[in-house]
Design goal:
The complex is a heterodimer of chains A (431) and B (112).
Chain A: H1 2-19, H2 26-52, H3 60-87, E1 90-91, E2 95-96, H4 120-138, H5 148-171, H6 176-180, H7 188-206, H8 222-241, H9 249-277, H10 282-296, H11 305-330, H12 338-356, H13 375-405, H14 412-417, H15 419-424
Antiparallel strand pairs in A: 1-2
Helix pairs in contact in A: 2-3, 2-4, 2-8, 3-4, 3-5, 4-5, 4-7, 5-7, 5-13, 7-12, 7-13, 8-9, 8-10, 9-10, 9-11, 10-11, 10-12, 11-12, 12-13
Chain B: E1 2-8, H1 13-22, E2 29-35, E3 42-46, E4 49-53, E5 56-65, H2 70-81, E6 89-95
Antiparallel strand pairs in B: 1-5, 1-6, 2-5, 3-4
The chains are: A mainly alpha (431), B alpha+beta (112).
Chain lengths: 431, 112
């Protein structure tokens, strides 16, 4: 009798396995869905607070609103065409086709091309949050002076013309950089180099804020910025460890490298600033933390903890120099250092991946220079150049075009009054 | 009737309030203000960019009192707000023509 019963149980469990649609793993799915929500948190309110604390009080709402508006715009763009352009069947290595238009065929079954153990929709959603945060990052370069209407159109065009193709090149099956052998674990090139290059282009096209370098423009609320940095750090575990696309050892490694690099970068920015300016600053510590998160992103699942510490320590120092020394030298107004931290930190992270990547950590990666092969470093450099140049050029074209059609900047008086009142008829603080 | 207007270091406000309370001063107006005198400002550094902050935060206390009480009020404020370091602030004494208690329409000293 008991034998019969256990046989029945086995049959039952086999039947449930078969029912558990085509290889979906519950643990993997749970982790990726949670990671998706964590990456959402990075944009809103993480990045929104991080940026809005650094602007003047008259622009706090306008800056918060940019991040939240991007979240809404790109969420819909991604469902309609974005996902298809990035991850649809390959066209010439350059872009995805329209097969997934409106999420056609993107259902609960896994898509083994990308993630064999989670529903295709879960993969699509996880990627959506990356597409969301990338244009939101650029906003740091043109903070306090862009028209909200122009900002909305720019976000839609940039996501479609820059983010979607670049994501396809690097991550899409058949994408030319993926086939070429460049590696990017969680979006160093796709997210940070592309947004950083766009940020530099935007700072150049929009020009400086009125009074830049002559008037005092201190951050109006650093506690907001620090809360934002904390939320970014927290959410970044979804960004990087979630990019393992499973609840597994690789996710744990990426979690560990992320935390270690970030800690190193926070301390190194603080230390370099202490030596250079005489005081350790909270904004410096928070900025270093973000620089470390950016730099470890492409490497997170390809390097070990010791390498991640070196990547982080260097990231804090490199980004400090780019923000505190290089920027004033050239005089461009990358207002919240979107290029200085995401562009420069992303480039360093992609280069560092070429140095430190090890197939002992992740067999799906490639050996870096310190594992005895220089080939990866060369491929990384080419990928950096391609993503940077493409994003920089197309961003220039989009912005120049929009400037002619509708104008990018608010008027001088409006800039003096602030975006909150002139763009939104609201004030952040009533006293 | 005089108005005593004192600009003091913000952290001295509680001590000054207590000293004035001991004189039975029954009302005052306190405002957060910014400005500079001989202390000048200080510098702040954000991501390596240094700013001179000229206007320092101070607290302005306004007390209207009788002519006889004025020297005591000034002495109380001076005693409580003094640290002996540059930036302790200033006191100005201004004649006041009249005053009105809105609730009762009392005038002059009675309105205080």
């Amino acid at each position: 009798m008991s034998k019969l019963f256990s046989a029945f149980l086995i049959c039952l469990s086999l039947a449930t396995d078969a029912l558990a649609d085509g290889g979906v793993d519950t643990g993997d799915t749970a982790w990726v869905l949670v990671s998706t929500a964590l990456v959402l948190l990075m944009t809103a309110p993480g990045l929104a607070l991080f940026y809005s604390g650094m602007v003047r009080r008259k622009n706090v709402l306008g800056t918060l609103m940019q991040s939240f508006a991007v979240l809404c715009v790109v969420s819909i763009q991604w469902v309609l065409i974005g996902y298809s352009l990035a991850f649809g069947p390959d066209r010439l290595g350059l872009i995805g086709g329209f097969e997934f238009f409106g999420l056609n065929g993107v259902g609960q079954e896994p898509n083994p091309d990308y993630a064999a153990t989670i529903p295709h929709q879960a993969f699509m959603l996880f990627q959506m949050m990356f597409a969301v945060i990338t244009p939101a990052l650029i906003a740091g370069a043109f903070a306090e002076r862009m028209k909200f209407s122009a900002f909305l159109i720019f976000t839609l065009l940039w996501t479609t013309l820059v983010y979607d193709p670049v994501a396809h090149w690097v991550w899409g099956v058949g994408g030319w950089l993926r086939d070429f052998g460049a590696i990017d674990f969680a979006g160093g090139a796709v997210v940070h180099i592309s947004s950083g290059a766009a940020a530099l282009a935007a700072a150049l096209v929009l020009g400086r804020r009125k009074g830049y370098m002559t008037e005092i423009m201190p951050p109006h609320n650093l506690p907001l910025t620090v809360i934002g940095a904390g939320l970014l750090w927290f959410g970044w575990f979804g960004f990087n460890a979630g990019s393992a696309l499973g609840a597994n050892g690789l996710a744990a490694t990426a979690f560990l490298t992320t935390n270690t690099a970030t800690a190193g970068a926070g301390l190194s920015w603080m230390a370099v600033e202490w030596l250079h300016r005489g005081k350790p600053t909270l904004l410096g510590l928070a900025s270093g933390i973000v620089a470390g998160l950016v730099a470890i992103t492409p490497a997170a699942g390809f390097v070990g903890p010791a390498s991640s510490l070196l990547i982080g320590l260097a990231a804090g120092a490199i980004c400090y120099v780019s923000v505190a020394i290089v920027k004033p030298l050239f005089g461009y107004d990358d207002s919240l250092d979107a290029f200085g931290i995401h562009g420069v930190g992303g480039i360093w992270g992609a280069v560092a991946t070429g140095f430190f990547a090890s197939t002992a950590i992740n067999a799906a990666g490639a050996p870096g220079l310190f594992s005895g092969s220089g080939a990866l470093l060369g491929k990384q450099l080419l990928a950096i150049g391609a993503c940077f140049l493409y994003s920089f050029t197309i961003t220039m074209v989009i912005l120049k075009g929009l400037d002619m059609v509708m104008g990018l900047r608010v008027g001088k008086d409006e800039e003096m009054q602030g975006l909150d009142i002139t763009q939104h008829s609201e004030s952040g603080y009533s006293l | 009737m005089k108005k005593v207007e004192a600009i003091i270091k913000p952290f001295k406000l509680d001590e000054v309030k207590k000293a004035l309370g001991e004189l039975n001063i029954e009302g005052m107006t306190v405002t957060e203000v910014k400005g500079f005198g001989r202390q000048k400002g200080h510098s702040e550094v954000y991501r390596g960019a240094e700013y001179m902050v000229d206007f320092l935060p101070k607290v302005k206390i306004e007390v209207v009192t009788s002519d006889e009480m004025t020297p005591k009020v000034v002495a109380a404020i001076t005693g409580a707000a003094k640290t002996g370091k540059i930036g302790d602030g200033k006191i100005f004494i201004i004649p006041v023509d009249d005053g009105v208690r809105i609730r009762t329409s009392e005038r002059g000293i009675d309105a205080l």
